[in-house]
Design a protein that fits this description.
Blueprint: E1 3-7, E2 10-12, E3 18-25, E4 34-39, E5 46-51, E6 57-59, E7 67-72, E8 77-82, E9 91-98, E10 106-109, E11 113-117
Parallel strand pairs: 2-11
Antiparallel strand pairs: 1-3, 3-8, 4-5, 4-9, 5-6, 7-8, 9-10, 9-11
């Protein structure tokens, strides 16, 4: 049974930073691409960042240069470092495992972690 557990969300002031973590079990983590989605109230779900099994990354234009995705295969964990956060980054962030190591097809989802950017 594949399980994804996110952590690290919370309340942060504009301009602040957070690091989200997602630990994966029940699968050979190193074989698969991983990614992060977010969904704000009243908005469509947005793919924020992905990382292939080889470490190639891709970002939504709205978060480039502020968010960084990385992975530690030894710890079965993917991270999302978020810097210079803005109120529009407020959303529930979901960790996702893909069906392959390269092409992005979401397969398994975490339960989500809330990020709130507010003064």
């Amino acid at each position: 049974q594949v399980q994804l557990v996110e952590s690290g969300g919370g309340l942060v002031q504009p301009g602040g930073s957070l690091r989200l973590s997602c630990t994966v079990s029940g699968t050979d983590f190193s074989l698969y691409a991983m990614g992060w989605y977010r969904q704000a109230p009243g908005k469509q779900r947005e793919l924020v960042a992905t990382i292939t099994n080889y470490g190639t990354t891709n970002y939504a234009d709205s978060v480039k240069d502020r968010l960084t995705i990385s992975r530690d295969n030894a710890k079965n964990t993917v991270y999302l470092q978020m810097n210079n956060l803005k109120p529009e980054d407020t959303a529930v962030y979901y960790c996702v495992r893909a069906t392959t190591g390269g092409d992005w097809y979401p397969a398994y989802w975490g339960q989500g972690t809330q990020v709130t950017v507010s003064s």
